[in-house]
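Consortium newsletter contribution from the modelling node. Members have asked for a concrete example of what our holo predictions look like. Here is one, prepared for the glutamine complex that several groups have been discussing at recent meetings.
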Amino acid sequence: MQGDFALHHNALERIGIESVPVKTPSDLDQIDGLVIPGGESTTMSLLINTYNMFEPLVRFGMSNPVMGTCAGLILMAEVVNDDRIDPLGLIDIVIERNAYGRQIESSKQKVEFVFSENHKIKLSTTLIRAPRITRLSDDIKVLGEYNNSPIAILSGHHLGLSFHPELDEIDIFHQIIFDKQSEFYFKKIEHLDVA
Ligand code: GLN
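And here is the predicted structure:
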């Protein structure tokens, strides 16, 4: 509906997954996974409600993989510290918007991600007025942290990122949540103990 969805189409194309824009409830019938991109979460929330997408998105998310980046992560949360946002409640977390302060309103950070014992990868990630996860339930796996806060989390078939992998052509997170062929596909790593 809004935000940098175009670069996610590119990422999905790179890993061989067909993607279509989603703007109306019936668009959800065409797909079996969803990316909620970065952008402006207050605008997105308004559009979701205006186009009667709230209930359909919650229903879709119950049984299908969903990945949210930045503003998308904000929308997937249970609680957000901004009452202009009606979060979908797909992941049991509390979010503080724009929480990382001025100096990193936009910045690149080297972060080590731990997907399993044998899979640790350092990636340069882009944070843009990023949200901070201030609370998360015990069953959520933290895949990466910045400044002692989680910035990549996996909660069942839901993946939330504070940063923008699509800007740096990092495809591993799309693979984790959507690519059944990938060794990183969440069903293959979910039994492993992640930090
Ligand atoms: N600050 C934005 C918001 O709260 C998120 C920024 C982003 O998606 N890069 O919606």
